[in-house]
Amino acid sequence: MSGGDKLDFEIRPNPAPVSAADRAALLTNPGFGRIFTDHMVTIRYADAKGWYDARVEARAPIPMDPAAAVLHYAQEIFEGLKAYRTADGGVTLFRPEANAARFVASAQRMAMPALPPQAFVDSLRRIIEIDREWIPTDTDGSLYLRPFMFASEVFLGVRPANEYLYTVIASPVGAYFSGGVKPVTVWVSPDYTRAAPGGTGAAKCGGNYAASLVAQAEAIEHGCDQVVFLDAVERRFVDELGGMNVFFVYDDGTLVTPPLTGTILPGITRESVLTLAAAAGHRVEERPVSFAEWQADAASGRLREVFACGTAAVITPIGEVKFPDGEFLVGGGEPGAVTMALRQRLVDIQRGDAPDPYGWVTRVL
Ligand SMILES: Cc1ncc(COP(=O)(O)O)c(C=O)c1O
């Protein structure tokens, strides 16, 4: 690595990129996570060398030895953030340093090397520069960036690996939930928990998502869009959704979200919403909310709105809640005014349609 945390990237453009006509066809309805750009970034790590061999090259399968440690012990972490096209044709990222910091925190929890934040943000710039034509221009569209890192050492044995591969791929996306902004239905899992105290819940590691899949499948079987996990100790308090944090909006204008106790992912959208809500004059509280409280307050009408938030779905109203013993609506099943105002405020800042008093938006191109 030269010049402190700065890496020099070798650029090898894809010799056979997708044609402009085919790309335009793919971009008309990209969906979410289905199509990918022409390139990827890779950076290698070895204990003896540090970070080395940073490249931008054609997106291609990654050859892997069957004894690569990740395939056995799941040392893997990832991030997710979006690049947005601005009205003047530029490109921005939303709080990429926050993703870089979370990537470091995830690496530390999984006994992996920390990629310097500057190398993380530079890697994003590199793929955006070379694949800029893949960024959708419509208002719901963006380029979803997926940085990830895994143990590539060829070794069987339970200990931290000494070789890793960091990679960034990019996927043009539309809305996460098909049908635009309409309230989703959630399933409160009675049997499965996501993360226990002292576990890996606050790390963005693949294993957390593997553990959530059976519960998410159960949610779909019950006609729900997402699963809600309760705390692993008492099975009483709301932790988060399979891939989103959750907020409760009360009739006195207070917003409440579960605290960061180590079992939930510290969402960057969550943190942004706390800031925006306080700036809009709401009282905000980070405190445990029990499922019993959620039910009782929805029934009494004290609880007016509930929403989920995360990079993929931005801010999405939760209209209906199902659980083994029944179901109930929140806010009559309609999107709430506070939810939609916060969503608009956040999207306006992210897309450069409103001033950014927080320094959250990074211009990349
Ligand atoms: C489990 C989980 N919780 C919350 C979030 C929201 O985090 P962010 O707002 O940083 O996207 C995500 C998505 O990254 C997630 O996977």
UniProtKB/TrEMBL annotation:
Cofactor: pyridoxal 5'-phosphate
Catalytic activity: L-leucine + 2-oxoglutarate = 4-methyl-2-oxopentanoate + L-glutamate; L-valine + 2-oxoglutarate = 3-methyl-2-oxobutanoate + L-glutamate; L-isoleucine + 2-oxoglutarate = (S)-3-methyl-2-oxopentanoate + L-glutamate
EC number, UniProt record: 2.6.1.42
Annotated InterPro entries: Aminotrans_IV, Aminotrans_IV_CS, Aminotransferase-like, B_amino_transII, BCAT-like_C, BCAT-like_N, BCAT_family
Residue numbers carrying N6-(pyridoxal phosphate)lysine: K204
GO annotation, biological process: isoleucine biosynthetic process; L-leucine biosynthetic process; L-valine biosynthetic process
PROSITE patterns on file: AA_TRANSFER_CLASS_4 (PS00770)
Enzyme class: transferase
UniProt keyword annotations, A-Z: Amino-acid biosynthesis, Aminotransferase, Branched-chain amino acid biosynthesis, Pyridoxal phosphate, Transferase
Coiled coil: none
Pathway this chain belongs to: Amino-acid biosynthesis; L-valine biosynthesis; L-valine from pyruvate: step 4/4; Amino-acid biosynthesis; L-isoleucine biosynthesis; L-isoleucine from 2-oxobutanoate: step 4/4; Amino-acid biosynthesis; L-leucine biosynthesis; L-leucine from 3-methyl-2-oxobutanoate: step 4/4
Domain of life: Bacteria
Database matches in NCBIfam families: ilvE_II, PRK13357.1
Similarity comment: Belongs to the class-IV pyridoxal-phosphate-dependent aminotransferase family.
Protein name: Branched-chain-amino-acid aminotransferase
